[in-house]
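Entry 12.
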Amino acid sequence: MPIYEYKAFASGGAVQSGVVDADTERDARAKLRRQNLLVSKLVETRGGRKVKRTRQGKKSDGLIARAAARRAAQVGPGARENEIVAGITRQLATLIGSGIALAEALGAIVDQAENRRIETLFREIREKVQQGHSLADALQRHPGWFSELYINMVRAGQAAGNLDTVLSRIADYMQAQRGLRRKIIGALMYPAMMIGLGIIVVTILLTKVVPEITTMLLDQGKALPASTQLLVNVSNFFQRFWWMIFLAIGAISFFVERIYKNSPKGRLRIDRFLLAIPVMGDMLHKAAVGRFTRTLSTLLQSGVPVIQGLEITEKVVGNKVIADATEHIRVRVLEGTDLASPLKATGAFPTVVGYMVAVGEQSGELEVMLDRIADAYDEEIDVVTERLTALLEPIMIVCLASIVGYIVYAIIQPILQIGQL
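Predicted 3D structure (tokens):
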């Protein structure tokens, strides 16, 4: 069985070295991982001598790694990989905070990575850092993986000498945003499921049940009531042109998406419409305001200048109404005004937000006040989510019951008339 010589970080950041026997390098890493050791170096030994790769092997390995890294940069991360990056960010903050050099900490991340794309990504980043590039510049080569907010915070953290603290804030921010998305998706999941279930039930009734029963009624040679005739017409239309209905829905969705992505004016109209929807619009508005305050607070705490912070925040708030308001605030701040005055003047933010920002500026604790606002809106989103679910549940049930009830009534009415005759 091969023997591997290793160097690893124990809990608390202490460096530990030794040997371990395992069938393969992967098995050796897994064995050390079970001992709560974060491997930074692992070399196979034979008879007390290290096994060296040939020069050609090293060169080919480097080419393969760089090619894989380029592919990883071109293809953005999935949801699971985004969570892994958030976890790695916190892990990297812990390693650097323990006094471990950046390149060595990145090496530990590479050796510990279980996902191939993550491994090649951080291998490329480590190579750039070892060549003398800053971490921010290395991250900037992978825009599909690291946002402008992430990169600018890292750059500010390196300039201020508190990279570990900034990385920890980034991890907190990514976790908070992921939680916010889950709340919104969870709130919209129930009505989406109800709508989907309603469409399936109505489709089965119109294409299978209604035609068989109405055919039987028509064979009696009796005139159908108006309600039944309307149902027959709808059923016939649906049977003949069902593909046109779904095609129209797909086309409308496609054009709305294209307008939202490519037309600033169209996106503004759509976002205004969404914000005007009762209850759901309130939830989306609170989510956008909470994202604005959380993002700006995180950037300012990391040492990013307020103008640059507003510029980055404008791109991540996720709502055109709030984004345009953020741009207006940035322009006014550039002209020399404070942050609170233009924020109040936009009308896009609740009045209480403007007053709290003003208090934060006057007390010199703007970042802390923005964090408190974000925390408050996170709690309010929970309340609105519950209200939305409680409101939509009876509405969806009543709508579905009304449609199914009409279909049943339209079918039973002529049957009862035949029975009376």
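Annotation: The longest strand covers residues 38-46. Residues 52-69, 71-75 have pLDDT under 50 and may be disordered.
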